[in-house]
């Protein structure tokens, strides 16, 4: 692995660092990194790795650029909306550093292709946005003994770590053995994310990758770095490998890749015949019993009906007044709306969606179903 | 009621109790949080046995998946 004169000039600020030098820059050039996801995290990760001189960057993303991505996904520009993210990413990276080989995988990573995708690379970086892909990435990296540079973000908070059981550290499952039930943890699309946050967390991931490639410094193995953008504070939690971990523990039960959609409780589309805008009265009870979920229940019936029957702890905001009073609600909060039987709450949902409320659900069957299935003390009328 | 310091803030709980029970009482999913107890890493498989006492310090982080 040699550097030509152009490369020597390009990487001069690295070459004069005693910790990098010519030998270190050659290690960076010899390294190959697979980035899973070319979104918020994948943008700074791949752009900085390319600029720093990583020899080969693979990018896995099946998605296309959406207008709402541009607030944070700096790989893509206004003109890229509608294009393949992988192709748009390649163009940006090649523009930064033509010496970097970019391999794009315009496909969805799955149990069938993950091992073949990951095998040719030295280091994997997790820039995905969902639980099934995170568990899949983790398991494939544990099986193939590849370091998995982890980052994840939500609203104003981010996390980063390096998972490498083969180097003595824990894996993702040592921290989170099971995913939360579907819908319990909102995605960035549902809950929002500060645009600059993936920039900060992605840069931390890129930093850890360069250290791994160089073999310098103290890697973020066995530590979970946490960042809060509102407080502008970092903190760190110690992690340990769990001897009972199902994949990297002393007696692993997972020896090959599994069905991660099923593992994460995601029902395949054809079986999911219910209206996605609706939740059940059991879901409503869960929301009322667990305030920490951050889901608020609102009754959209009229005051006279509220006098007759109501569910304790549920405030009233009549559908007839919603047009003038919807500003009393927070468009970033999750709401479950209920009425008498579930028709008006769907209307209220439609209205709030138009006003920019993203995470609103209607309780199927309304207070009538509540009375039938949850609490018979609530009168039916 | 006794309390612990969780993420820097006092939280009342019936103590002593198992870490698993404490998490459930806080409406947290024990399989979806990372916990540091008095500055020590705790593996999830230890949650049911690990005893939390009054005045203990806990750092609790919830799982997020955004990217």
Question: How would you describe this protein?
Answer:
Chain A has about 375 residues and is α/β, with parallel strands linked by helices. Chain A has 2 domains: about 30-270, Rossmann fold; about 280-375, Oxidized Rhodanese, domain 1 (3-Layer(aba) Sandwich). Chain A has helices at about 5-10, 10-15, 20-30, 40-50, 85-95, 115-120, 130-145, 170-175, 190, 195-215, 260-265, 280-290, 305-310, 320-325, 345-355, 365-375, and strands spanning about 30-35, 55-60, 100-105, 125, 150-155, 155-165, 225-230, 235-240, 280, 295-300, 335-340, 360-365. In chain A, helix 4 packs parallel to helix 10 (about 195-215). The model of chain A has no long low-confidence stretch (mean pLDDT about 95). The longest helix of chain B is centred in the first third of the chain and has 7 residues, at about 20-25. Chain B has one domain: Ubiquitin-like (UB roll). The N and C termini of chain B lie far apart (about 40 Å). The mean pLDDT of chain B is about 95. Chain B contains 1 helix and 7 strands. Chain B is mostly beta strands. The chains are: A alpha/beta (about 375), B mainly beta (about 70). At the A-B interface, strand 5 and strand 8 of A face strand 4, strand 5 and strand 7 of B.
């Amino acid at each position: 692995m040699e550097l030509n004169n152009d490369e020597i000039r390009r990487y001069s600020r690295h070459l004069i660092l005693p910790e990098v030098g010519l030998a270190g820059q050659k290690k960076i050039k010899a390294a190959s990194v697979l980035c899973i996801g070319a979104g918020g995290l994948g943008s700074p990760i791949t752009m900085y790795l390319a600029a720093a001189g990583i020899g080969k960057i693979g990018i896995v993303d099946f998605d296309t650029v959406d207008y709402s991505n541009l607030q944070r996904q700096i790989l893509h520009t206004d003109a890229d909306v509608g294009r393949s993210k992988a192709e748009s990413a390649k163009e940006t990276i090649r523009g930064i550093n033509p010496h970097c080989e970019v391999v794009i995988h315009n496909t969805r990573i799955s149990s069938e292709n993950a091992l073949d995708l990951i095998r040719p690379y030295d280091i994997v970086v997790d820039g995905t946005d969902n639980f099934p892909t995170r568990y899949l990435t983790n398991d494939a990296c544990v099986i193939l003994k590849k370091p998995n540079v982890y980052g994840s973000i939500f609203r104003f908070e981010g996390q980063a770590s390096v998972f490498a059981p083969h180097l003595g550290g824990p894996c993702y499952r040592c921290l989170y053995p099971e995913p939360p039930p579907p819908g319990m943890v909102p995605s960035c699309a549902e809950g929002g994310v500060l645009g600059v946050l993936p920039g900060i967390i992605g840069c931390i991931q890129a930093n850890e990758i360069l250290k791994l490639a160089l073999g310098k410094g103290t890697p973020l193995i066995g530590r979970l770095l946490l960042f809060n953008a509102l407080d502008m504070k970092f903190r760190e939690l110690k992690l340990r490998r769990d001897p009972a971990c199902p994949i990297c523990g002393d007696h692993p039960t997972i020896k090959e890749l599994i069905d991660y959609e099923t593992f994460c409780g995601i029902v395949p589309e054809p079986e999911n015949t219910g209206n996605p805008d609706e939740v059940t009265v059991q879901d409503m009870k869960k929301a009322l019993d667990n305030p920490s979920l951050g889901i608020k229940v609102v009754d959209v019936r009229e005051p006279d009906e509220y006098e007759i029957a109501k569910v304790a702890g549920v405030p009233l905001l009549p559908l007839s007044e919603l047009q003038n009073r919807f500003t009393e609600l927070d468009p970033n909060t999750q709401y479950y709306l209920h009425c008498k039987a579930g028709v008006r709450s769907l209307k209220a949902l439609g209205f709030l969606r138009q006003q920019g409320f993203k995470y609103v659900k209607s309780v199927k069957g309304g207070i009538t179903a509540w009375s039938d299935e949850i609490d018979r003390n609530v009168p039916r009328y | 009621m006794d309390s612990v310091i969780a993420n820097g803030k006092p939280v009342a709980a019936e103590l002593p109790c198992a870490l698993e029970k404490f998490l459930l009482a806080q409406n947290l999913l024990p399989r979806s949080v990372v916990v540091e107890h008095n500055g020590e890493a705790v593996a999830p498989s230890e949650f049911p046995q690990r005893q939390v006492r009054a005045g203990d310090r806990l750092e609790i982080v919830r799982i997020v998946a955004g990217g």
